[in-house]
Structures are given as structure tokens and as C-alpha cells.
Request: fold
Amino acid sequence: MTAHTPSTEPFRDPRLPLAKRVDDLLGRLTLDEKLSFLHQFTPAVERLGVAAFRTGQEALHGVAWMGPATVFPQAVGLGATWNPELVRRVGDAVSKEIRAMRAKDDRVGLNVWAPTVNLLRHPLWGRNEEGYSEDPKLTSAIATAYTRGLRGDHPTHWRTAPVLKHWLAHNNETDRDTTSSSVRPRVLHEYDLRAFRDTVRAGAVAGVMPAYNLVNGRPNHVSPYLSEHLRTWTDEDLLVCSDAGAPSNLVDSEHYFDTHEEATAAALVAGVDSFTDHGTDSSQIIGRLRGALERGLLSEADVDTAVRRQLSVRFRLGEFDPGDDPHDATGAFDTPAHRALAQEAAEQAVVLLKNDGVLPLAPDTRVAVVGLLADECKLDWYSGTLIHRSTPLEGLYERFGADRVEFTEGVDRVRFKTSTGAFLHVPAAEGAADEVRGAEGALDPALLRGRTDLPALTTDADGTELALVDWGEDVLTLRAPDGRYLSVADDGFLRASADQPGGWFVQETFRLEPHGNGHLLKHLGTGRHVSVSADGVKVADEDPEVFELVVAERGEEAVARAAAAADVVVVVAGNDPSINGRETEDRTTLRLPGHQERLLRAARAANPATVLALVSAYPYAVDPAELPAVLWTAHGGQAGGTALARVLAGDVSPAGRLPQTWYTDDADLPGLLDYDVIGARQTYLYFEGTPLFPFGHGLSYTSFAYGDLAARVEGTAVRVSFRVTNTGDVTADEVAQLYTRAVDASVPRPRRELLEHRRVTLAPGATAELSFEVPLTAFGFWDVAQGRWRVEPGAYELLAGASSEDVRLRTTVTLDGEPALPRAVVTDGLPAASFDEHSGIEIVDRTKVSGDAVTPVGAGSGELLYRACDFGEGVREVTVEVAGEGTVGVSLDGGPVLATLSPAAPTSGPYDYVRLGTSVVASGVHDVRLELRGPLRLAHVGFSG
Reply:
């Protein structure tokens, strides 16, 4: 045997503790080298044999952006499975494919920016597809499972290093880098922080990414919550990676700081460890950091802290243990097991919303499959490139045979006639290669450009018939007979060149604008109109062409013909993930686009046996009254079509469940920027209307009975058990759900709140005995008076059933809890943001570093209520800390105003607070009501004798 010779450098010795290895390597780096580690693209340090490193491999539902990979259902579809163990296996497969791809292409990174744990609070959010659920408990369960799969199960070496997105309270794309989410303390702790907290505590998270938006007036990239909350949830070093371009936004769009040196220093001190800015060019970030050091805004110790966190992740990934890394040999890529898993996940994601008995389809059914998504397998911004592909049409062909399946897409078939009488013509692309956008992989697919190797459109006497689709909001796509979409490349010419609409700036969408007796054709990607000139058809700033739209056939005409000849019609409707609802663009309505409404009406009129299959990244408000069956699935990845067909045929009994509420109408929704889920009665937790389909809803091809609910308090938990029996004749999954409700709550509490769930497979007649151990803390709420969690004493109802509204069993437990205490206002005063109720108020930043204040929305007027304030033996003075100008009125128990305070003159800035005082007399316990008027910030109210 040869004795082991210790490595020269201690950081390469796997026998040493991780912290010592990290400190050793950190101590060997020069200041310049350490600064270079703070950009997304960290260069190699050749003198130490340290390789280059990149943060940020997208892998939301498969390896994204780096070429072909297994594509699983969208994240919201994985959420709809309600199956953490399945999602863990998906994460495991994704991480193995990342390792396999990295072995061939070192551009593939191991620092994985996934999953997204933003809660699906508002269904019009453009990125609804990226989240798992509106519920924090379900979101954290699914996210924890995915991160565990991504991490791998080795005790010390991680297969990949997951980073959670997007910290925090981020549900709007509209002005996303300048809007502030006003999040009251109860919503912060009970809702937005909770999904992150529980996932981080589970131990398979390497970091988080702050979101573009501001929270309570302060950008997330300088949020004190990173240190006050995030880093207290784990002993692991967490790597905080900025979102792309967000560090520059602190100055350029948000104007929160005057200089980039100040902004970059503030972000680093707040806890951002890796700056994603200016693409691969690190020079600007490094220059800003160096400038901040020179100005004394940063210390080298601040830099060391951030670099240490990155190194900690790199050591856990096995970078410095090449001989001992158990994941080095991982080569599982596009395996039969991964393909089967993609199909299993797609099948489990299908939700049966309604069924009057038309499903499952009989084996000899003559099916008409129609609709804009009937022969599509759509990808989103965070998808990989398809290796395998199935559409609903292909799935039904395979299942029923092509002779029993009729297809029509339902596009409008049109030609564009110019003012000269000629028509737009798509020239033949002889010998042109088929290209799929992003198939070769790209570190930043936003930089991919359109094709210019194909001939531009011309005009001729006959023209080319194009397939026109209106995706809603008058946003059109135009497709040539060869399947390519009309697009515009950098040279401005129109070509039939795109395999699908897509890209960061979509260049395949148009709008028809009435003009005289015809229409202008506006290209939405450039904002220019289409012009026809001697050198071709292109977009231009002048001389737009006035077109006459010549319609050869409306889509509903073809749909009606196909529907009339079938036993059952399946209308496949939904969205294109690149259009009207995506990153950078929120939706404006829940309604199905008008074009698809026309197709659905035509099918239903021609054949009452019409099934609506929605394939979409978000909920719709549809009227199911006259439809015998409705299904929903997210875009299901490579096996989505096969999965949908197998569910329709009854090969699989559907058991997906809605991960968010489906509302009946736009009028049911709060404002997109209203983040107060309690006050605005949002999500199933608080919504008091009648949903179209409730949270947790989903039907089956069999029936289930629930029984024997029992609950008892034991120590620090409530033990709950019940039985579920398959009373039908089909083997199927049931998702049993357990909710709670505080019976006599002293503050607004959820109508019901998910405690636990379990997805079980039951053969006909089989029974599952389910048991749950629910910690008492799960019944708590954030007590704003005490600034901490509290379980209120009293009765709590436990509800077991098949959805949040389909409750089969009920029982009640009584918890001792902690009694409420009045606010000790004489000693503590009232932090302004710790109100119980409010109206017309938003929370803002007290300083740029920490703390909250409140102000009237739009500098108008607002009210705040603080319950049960204990004035003890009595007080004689009230003081307020305010900035700006305006008034604060103080009253007790709804009585008259007892005191009014106002600065004698406006303060010099929003952070320049003054203390004002006046006399007020009060004793005992009272509710305090404050009325604020004008552009005034209130930070604190004090009382003294």
C-alpha cells in the first residue's frame, strides 16, 4: 500500500471540515480575485488550479436553454399533481441530466436557479406557470421535494445547488422593477415568507434570488429580511444571487441610490453575494465594487463574507474533490426511465373539472379533436429543447387510431391584399434547414436572433394563404403553409422563419389596425407597420401598406363540420406561453380569447357531446354549464399529448387537483398590486365568493368514501387519522386533504387552511388509513401586538375531504394556546406598520437600510386601527415620528379626534423624521385609531405619562 500524501493546499484535503477548507482557499485569494468572484461569471484562478464558475442554470421543469433535454410539465402542472414524491423524482432526473450535459458542455452550470416558490396569489400574473400553488403549505411541500431531488441524497456532496426564486412578494410583471408590494406583517409572516421558510428549513436549498420588485418601499436586493429571516432558517451558507440586471436597476429605474457604487455596496452588505449584471462582462460590477471600497462603503470583510458563501456552495458540489465526487460519473440523460417519468408526471397533472358521464371515451368512439392547441406541444421561456414530442392529436391517433379521429385546427385562413391588388406571397425556401430556436443552447437565449437565411416575403397575383390566430387582445400570429411563422429579423424583413412564437422579444406577433377601408398590419415586436416596397416586404416607420383581409375560411366553419361528423368533440384550447401572459407581461382578463370562444361555441352547437380540454399556464373563467366535461392541464412537456389522450380514454383515472382557485369572473379579483391577501380576501384562504372551481378540486373516474375521522392533542402536536375507500370499480388515485379553521378567532383567520394532504392509489374496494401529525404551531398566526407567532386558545375545526370545498368529515379539537395580551403602548409605543386593520394605507421604508413606516396611498388619506392598547394607570402625552407633510389624528374606540399632530413645515426628505408631541389623556385598554392625511410618513407612535 502507498501512504496517502496530504495535498499541498489544505483546501483540497477532504478530511478537513468544510469551514476550514473554505477559509484556507479564501485566504489564498487576492482582493482582486475575490472581487472577480462576485459576478455571475467567475473567472478561473489558474495559479491555484481553481476553475471558472457560473451561477444560474435554469431548470424549472427540466434543463433549460442548453439544448435538448427531457421536458417535464410546467411547474404549475407539477403543483397540480399534489405529489411531492413524484416531484422529488422529477428533480432527481433533472439534476442527473444537468450532470450528464455538463460532462459534454461545461457551459452547463451546477448552481440551479429553481424552483420558483412565489405563491400564485393572483391568476393574472404573467408568470403563473412558474409557481406551484396559491397555498404556502402546498408550495413548500412541492418545492422541498424538487430541491431534494436536485440536491441528491449524498450526505455531503450535492448533485446540484438549488436557488429559490424570487424573494419576495413578487406577483406582477407590470412595472415589476419599480412597483412596491405593500405587505403587512401578518401577510409577510403567514403567507409570503412561509413558503421560503419551510423549504429552506428542509435543508436542500443552496440560496435564493431576490425579485425585481420592492417590498414596503425597499428593493428586494437590499432587503433586511435576507439577514433578519432567511439566514436564520439554516446553519448552511446560503448563496444569494441577484436577478439579471437588478443591481443596475437600483439606480437606473428605481432611483433608490444616486450612484452605482452606493447601490452595489448596499446590496452586498444586505446579503447579495453574486451579481448578475451586464451578461458575461464582469468589469462594470467589479469596477463598482472597487469604487465602493475606495469610498469606504465596503470593507474587505464584507467581500470575504460573500465570497465565502460562494465557495461553500462550490465545495458542497464536489468541485475540489474530483476523485471523491459521487456525481462525477452521473450520465443519466434521456433515459427510458426519464421518458416514463415525464409521461407519469404529465398524467398525474391532468385535472378533471367536470364530467357528466361522457368521459372516459368508449374504445369505438369517433372523435373530432379541434382547437388551436390540438396539435401543439408548446414550450415556455424556461423549457429545454424537445427530444420527444406528443400533441393531443398524436396521442388520440395512437390511442384510437387515425381512422377514428378527425382533426381541424380552427385557424382563420386568410390572404393579405395590397393596395395595388397583389397579395403577400411566401416564397419557397428550397433546401432550407429546419431550425428550432435555441436547439444549440445559449447562456442567454434573449440574445438569439431571427433567421435571415430564408427568403423575405414578396407579393404576387395569387398570394399565399396564411393561418391566422387571434390569441386575445387582438394579438395575432400568421403561419405559412409549411408551418413556419411570419417573423421579423434584425434587417426588418418579413420571413416565414420561426418554428414557434418565442424569444425574449417575441417577433412573431402582429395586430390589425383599422385604417380607411382596410387595415394596417402592425408588427408588435418592433412597433412598426408592415410596408411593401420594391425591395420586399418589411417593417418601416413610414409608408405603411393598407391591406384588405381576404378570408377564405373562418375557423369555426371547419370546426363545425368536423364536430357534426363525430360522436364526441374534444376542443383543445388554452394559451401560447410566449403570448399574453408570460415573464414581462401580465394578463388583463381571465376570459378565454375570443377566437377560441368562437371555436368552442361552434363545436357545441354542432355536437352537444363537446369536451373542453384546457391546456394552459393559468386559470380561465369559462362557463361549463352546457359542457358535459371539462379538463385542465398545464403545458405538459414532451409527453403532454400522450398523457391527455390516456386520461380521455380512461387508461388513467385523472387525479390532478387544482393548485389555485379558479374564479368565475374578473370582478372577483382584487387589484394586481394589492398584496394584502387578508384585507382583500384573496385566495381560497379568504375568498368569500363562489369560485368557478375551488382550490384542491379535481374529479375521478371512480368514487371515494371518507370515514372514521379522529383527532387528539398529544404534546406538541395534533394526531389526526381517517379512512379513504375506493367505492367504485376503477383503480385510481385520491388526494385526501386536511384543512383547519379557527372557530372563534379574535382576528381575521382563513376560512380554511391546508394542514396536510396525501395522494394514495386505491384498487376498487381498497381502503387506506391515513394519519397525520400536525404540529401545534400550524394553528398559529402572527400576533402583530406581540410581534411573534401565537396559537390562540379555543376550538379548531378539522375538515377532511376531496377539496377545500368538498368536505366529507369534520371534527373539533380544543387547544390551550396562549391568551391575547394587550399592547404595552406605554413602554413599547406603536410601531406604525404593526396595525390590526387599515384603509387607504401602504407600507413604505423607514430608512434605506431597515424598518417600516406607513403613508396614505397617493398622498391622500388613510386610517389605521390598533386593537387593545393598554394605557395602564394613564398617559398624558402622545408623540409621533413623522417625515414629510400632513397630519396625524388620534382617537380612541371610534370616538372623536382627541389630538392632531402636524409638522410645522415639511421635513427635508422622506427619511428625515421629526418627533411631534401633544397632550392626550387616556387610561385602561382602548382601541387606537389614527387618521393620516397628505404625503406624510409615520414610523412610530408613543405614549407617556
Notes: The radius of gyration is 30 Å. The first helix runs from residue 18 to 28.
